[in-house]
Amino acid sequence: MSGYKRVSGDAIEYEVFARKTRVEPLHQVGSVVAPDADLAMAYARATYDEERWCEMAIVRKEDVIHLWSPGQA
Amino acid sequence: MSLPDLVLSLADNKQMLGLRYAEWATRAPSLEADIAAAAMGLDDLGHSRVLYGCLEPLGADPRGTERESDAASLRNLPYFDEPWTEWSQFVAANAILDTAFTVMIEACVTGSVEVLQHRLRKMLMEERYHFLHGRSWLRSGIETGPLNRAWQEAIEWFGPPDGDTARLHREGKLSMGPAELRGRLEEQMETKAPQTEVDWKQWDAVRRRGRKGAIDAHTFGMLRGLEEKKYAPPTAAKQAAT
Hints:
The complex is a heterodimer. Helix content of chain A is 16%, strand content 30%. Chain A is α+β, with helices and mostly antiparallel strands. Chain A has one domain: Ubiquitin-like (UB roll). Chain B is mostly helical. In chain B, helix 1 (3-22) runs antiparallel to helix 3 (87-109) and helix 3 (87-109) packs across helix 8. Chain B is built from eleven helices and no strands. Chain A binds chain B through residues 32-36, 38-39, 41-43, 45-47, 49, and chain B through 30, 32-33, 35-36, 38-40, 129-130, 132-133, 135-137, 139-140.
């Protein structure tokens, strides 16, 4: 998750996670900006559906709890 | 009107919806909305291909040669006749008309016709994201003009209370008739349709629309491949002639 921030107004940044097979863990494939979860789901699917994911999920970036960040470890 | 006629109308409308979505792939309010417009356009163009492919297995392909030369022979709704100039037109089509087509696909998938049950099911999964997109943008608020027009045309497209859709429902080929389709659309949109009056005597049962007209010449040319030819490199024969 980069430090770049492009959210303004009521928009919320969501991180997008996906995996191709059940045996691999979910990993971050990108992010989308949307005012609500419905639109974020539609955007995530439209933006990152090029590959045959078996699972895709989104998480509000602000809900991620950081234990530490780059330069703090 | 037969089931293939209805499927052809659905295919033509999906094709036009896909093209109109795609026109907004670089004009939507955000980068994400651009990408969504392009993706939904591709989805609906793909859906139209599948629907055209259902016509032969259904036993009758109503497409005639007039479709090559007469834009008014295509069975799209008036909403798609001209490119949209406002984002609110996009949102109203995405929320109301796209969902109306999905509701009809549901009626086909849960009806008694096997080829439609099998081939159209995957569309419902893809359409879920079109619905989320349209509903969310609708909640942000748009002008009532395009919204009321989309509702009006959706209800017209479902057909009259005693028309072909009602008969196909009675025969079990569709799991919903016009009243049920409208009710399902209202349920999905979590609102009642605005007051609409349809003059069914003026309604064109083939094109499922109450207003005359046709898609613009540029779009029709593109559908026929004529626009591509304008940009194609000259052939060896043409080069030899010059």
